[in-house]
Structure to design on (294 residues):
C-alpha cells in the first residue's frame, strides 16, 4: 500500500491534481490514470471540444496578448485573465474560463470553470459538455460532470469564505520564488499595466480579492450539453449543490490519491464504456474477454 501512497502523483507526473482528473475518476478511474501514464494525445473529439470552448470564449473576452516566456509569466497571465474575467462578471453579468484553485487533504487542486453568470443576483456556475446529439444523457454520463461542477462550486465558496486564501495559495505555489521575465514585464508595461500590479504576488492578491468579493453563490448549477456538429445546446441539466453528496464524492476519490487503493476499472454493469475506450484490449484488459464474448 505504501507504494501507491508514495507514487500516486508521481505515476501521473504531476505536482497537483486537476479537477478534471477527479471528475474522470467517476467515469473510469483506470482510464484517467492511463491517460497520464500512457501519455496519450488528445483525441480528435477532445480537440473539437477545445475548439468549441475557444469559440465561446472569444465571443465575450479578449485575453492578455503579451506572450509568456516562462512558468512565472504564465502564472501571471492566468491571474491577470482571471481578474479581467471576474471584473467582466461583476460589470456585465457573465464571464468565461475562470481558473479556480483549492486544496483537499493537503493536495493542490486546480481547474477551469467554463462560465460564471449572475442569475437573480447570485453567481451561477455553468459547464458546457460537447457530445453527439444522439447520445442519451444518462446517470453514468452525467456523474463525472456533476462531480466536476460541484468541486468548482466548493472551491469558489472556499475562496469566498476565506477557507482558501491568498496566503494558502502563495505558500503552496511558492509565489515568492517566481519572477517575471524581462520581456514579459516590458510587454505588460507597454500595454499599460501599472507598476503596483507588475509582480506575481500583487496580481494574485488582486485575483483573490476579486474572487472574495463576488456576489453570493447560487446553490443551483447548470450543465449544458452541446451538439458537436451544430454547436447548439440539446440538453440542459440543473444541479443542486449538496455538501453531503460532495463530501462522499471527495472521500471516494481521495482513496485513490491517498494511496489506499489502485486505480479501479469500471464495474461489470458499466463495462459498455470499455467499447469506447482507447485502452481497451491494449493497456487495459479488465473486461476484454468478457466484453468480446457479448
Ligand atoms: S477498458 Fe474499460 S475498464 Fe479499462 S480503462 Fe478503459 S473504460 Fe476503464
Amino acid at each position: 500500500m505504501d507504494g501507491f501512497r508514495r507514487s500516486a502523483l508521481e505515476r501521473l507526473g504531476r505536482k497537483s491534481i486537476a479537477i478534471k482528473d477527479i471528475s474522470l475518476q467517476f467515469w473510469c478511474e483506470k482510464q484517467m490514470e492511463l491517460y497520464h501514464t500512457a501519455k496519450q494525445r488528445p483525441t480528435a473529439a477532445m480537440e473539437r471540444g477545445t475548439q468549441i470552448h475557444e469559440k465561446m470564449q472569444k465571443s465575450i473576452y479578449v485575453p492578455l496578448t503579451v506572450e509568456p516566456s516562462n512558468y512565472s509569466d504564465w502564472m501571471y497571465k492566468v491571474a491577470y485573465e482571471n481578474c479581467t474575467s471576474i471584473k467582466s462578471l461583476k460589470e456585465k453579468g457573465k464571464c468565461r474560463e475562470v481558473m479556480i484553485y483549492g486544496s483537499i487533504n493537503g493536495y493542490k487542486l486546480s481547474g477551469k470553470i467554463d462560465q460564471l453568470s449572475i442569475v437573480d443576483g447570485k453567481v451561477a456556475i455553468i459547464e458546457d459538455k460537447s457530445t453527439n446529439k444522439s447520445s442519451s444523457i444518462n446517470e453514468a454520463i452525467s456523474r463525472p460532470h456533476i462531480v466536476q461542477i460541484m468541486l468548482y462550486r466548493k472551491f469558489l465558496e472556499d475562496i469566498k469564505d476565506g477557507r482558501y486564501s491568498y496566503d494558502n495559495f502563495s505558500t503552496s505555489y511558492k509565489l515568492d520564488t517566481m519572477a517575471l521575465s524581462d520581456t514579459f514585464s516590458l510587454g505588460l508595461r507597454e500595454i499599460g499595466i501599472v507598476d503596483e500590479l507588475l509582480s506575481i504576488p500583487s496580481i494574485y492578491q488582486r485575483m483573490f480579492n476579486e474572487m472574495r468579493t463576488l456576489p453570493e453563490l447560487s446553490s443551483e448549477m447548470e450543465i449544458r450539453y452541446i451538439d458537436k456538429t451544430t454547436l447548439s445546446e440539446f440538453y440542459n441539466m440543473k444541479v443542486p449543490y449538496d455538501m453531503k453528496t460532495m463530501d462522499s464524492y471527495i472521500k471516494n476519490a481521495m482513496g485513490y490519491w491517498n494511496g489506499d487503493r489502485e486505480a479501479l476499472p469500471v464495474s461489470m454493469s458499466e463495462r459498455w464504456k470499455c467499447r469506447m475506450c482507447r485502452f481497451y484490449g491494449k493497456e487495459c484488459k479488465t473486461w476484454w474477454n468478457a466484453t468480446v464474448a457479448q
